[in-house]
Amino acid sequence: PNLGLCHSQFPQTLVRTYASDTTGNAYLSYVIRSHNSYHNDFFVCEKTNKCIPYSKVCDLVDDCGDFADEARCNNHFQCANKMLLIPKPHKCDGVFHCLDFSDECNDECSKQLLDGWFLKLVSWVYGILAVLLNTTNICRCISKIPKCINTRTLSNKVWVLLISSGDIVIGLYLLIVAVNDFHYGDKFCHMQATWRTGNFCSFLGIISTLGSLISMISMTLMSVIRFREITRASHLIPSTTVTKLYSLKLGMACWLVAGISFVVSTVPIFSYFEDFFINGLSYDPELKLFIGFPDKTMHLAIIDAYSGRVKARLLSWDTIKSLIQEMFSKDYGGISHQMRTVEFYGNNACFFKYFVTSKDPQRFFVWCFQGIYFICLLIIGVSYFSIAAVAKNIGANAGKKFRSRKQKTQRKIQIMIATDFICWFPFIILCILHSFEVVDAADWYSVISVVILPINSVLNPLFYDDIYLKEFGNFKRKLV
Fold first, then answer.
1. Are 30 and 42 in contact (CB under 8 A)?
2. Using CA atoms in the order 262, 466, 424, 276, what is the torsion angle rounded to 10 degrees?
3. Is the model's pLDDT at 11 over the cut of 60?
4. Range list of H helices, 240-295
5. CB neighbours of 413 closer than 8 A, spacing ≥ 6?
6. Residue environment code for 109-127, b if the CB has 16+ CB neighbours within 10 A, otherwise e
7. Banded model confidence at residue 188, pLDDT cuts 50, 70, 90
8. What tens digit of pLDDT does each residue of 374-398 get?
9. Three-class SS of residue 39?
10. What is the rounded CA–CA span in Å between residue 63 and residue 74?
11. How far is CA 146 from CA 136, 143, 248, in A?
């Protein structure tokens, strides 16, 4: 560089000397002579011949205009659009810092909708099996319900029908996710803003939660009803004949389960509750003030810096949106069309937000939801263990055929309880640990939402209808 140009910028007495940068590379520079000491406190840019204070070298800001003051530094990552430098630890940390998302969407840590062949395979297999098995179950239940003559049989068929309906919705959710994963492919990382803020993602979150709730609540009620029926049988009380009144009550109970499940699953998208359930906003990439999916805290910090002190607790999302819009000119229509909300279900899997911390505004809703599942699991476990105990007493003096049938029933009960608890009980414990920040379970979310929790939607039709086990037994005997 032309070192003489620095005289006009620094009129003090200059002395030529050699200096070295942070990587140990030597270059020709100046020092300022002040009294009896010398200070090397500026840097000469290579192309622009601009002199800058040396404190601005390697500060992640292009002070030279050609990145000369940052080129030899190893403490940064340069975004793909060459417009921004970020600290190196911010690369692949799960938070977007580059306007073009290149700090997270790169060869090292770029993500797809379903990462890895295992998740892709499981999503397809679970989805196809859940849809096929539960469709068969639903058709069989519908064909048998009109033939039911006693309340015990009718009740079992109706609740199995409702459980299968919930499980088939889970299967459809998995298939839709698998299809979209195939559609987006490697482009998903750069397009996830569109995916996470779209109405389709909220729809997927609703149906996955709806199906799960219908299945769990129906399974709980059927467990209680089965316990009641076997208790009546132990006292030699026969099952009553089906009446129109009983059919009406059973139908109303089913609609009540479906209605409660629908309300709970759609509450997070009601605009009335947006201050509790909106996780952030997404902006057009051309709006360089906001990067990624800034939450309320980030918005409040920017508003405070722009307009002065704000009372954070009094600002709703509507107020925040209005204040942000006032920061920009309305000559070209403003920025309202560039603002998109990240809803409660706005994550990559479009799944229920099970993992929250003690500071999350949605924690009480999520904790209540988890509490419902935990109570349902306890009721199912207690009911089936009680059923097994009562059945053992009934069959103590029964014949060999009855004992054999009783043993099969007990095995099925044990498997059902085991699968429910293996899937849900450890998961709820993990959610509690995450809430109190004992562990960070966020990285396991994809595996849990695709592999662990949906497995019951495949296993339930096998346990609640003997046709598949009988067919497997026949096939096994033929092989032998």
1. yes
2. -10
3. no
4. 244-266, 274-277
5. 384, 387, 388
6. ebebbbeeeebbebbbebb
7. very high
8. 898 888 888 877 877 776 666 555 5
9. strand
10. 17
11. 17, 7, 14
Beta 26-34 vs 37-39: how paired, if at all?
Answer: antiparallel
Measure Cα distances from 383 to 223, 376, 388, 390 in Å: 6, 10, 9, 10
Q: Are 186 and 112 in contact (CB under 8 A)?
A: yes
Could you report the per-residue pLDDT of 222-259, keeping only the tens digit for each?
Answer: 888 888 877 776 666 666 787 889 889 999 999 999 99
SS3 16: strand
> Residues 448-451: contacts with CB within 8 Å, 24+ apart?
448/354, 449/208, 449/349, 449/351, 450/114, 450/119, 450/122, 450/123, 450/126, 450/174, 450/177, 450/349, 451/119, 451/122, 451/126
Share of the chain residues as helix, strand and coil, in percent rounded to the nearest 5: 60, 10, 30
**Angle between helix 199-234 and 151-184 (nearest 10):** 160
Residue 242: predicted pLDDT: 78
pLDDT in tens, 35-51: 666 555 677 787 777 87
**Is residue 19 within 8 Å of 57, Cβ to Cβ?**
no
Closest CA to 404 of 415, 391, 417, 387: 391
Alpha-carbon distances, residue 39 vs 1, 20, 54, 143 (angstroms) = 20, 14, 10, 92
Task: Check if the beta carbon of residue 208 is closer than 8 Å to that of residue 130.
Answer: no
Neighbours of 90 (CB within 10 A): 17
- Give the C-alpha distances (Å, rounded to integers) separating 441 from 71, 113, 394, 437: 38, 18, 46, 9
CA distance 102 to 82: 10
Strand partners, 38: 33
* Whole-angstrom distance, CA of residue 42 vs CA of residue 22: 14
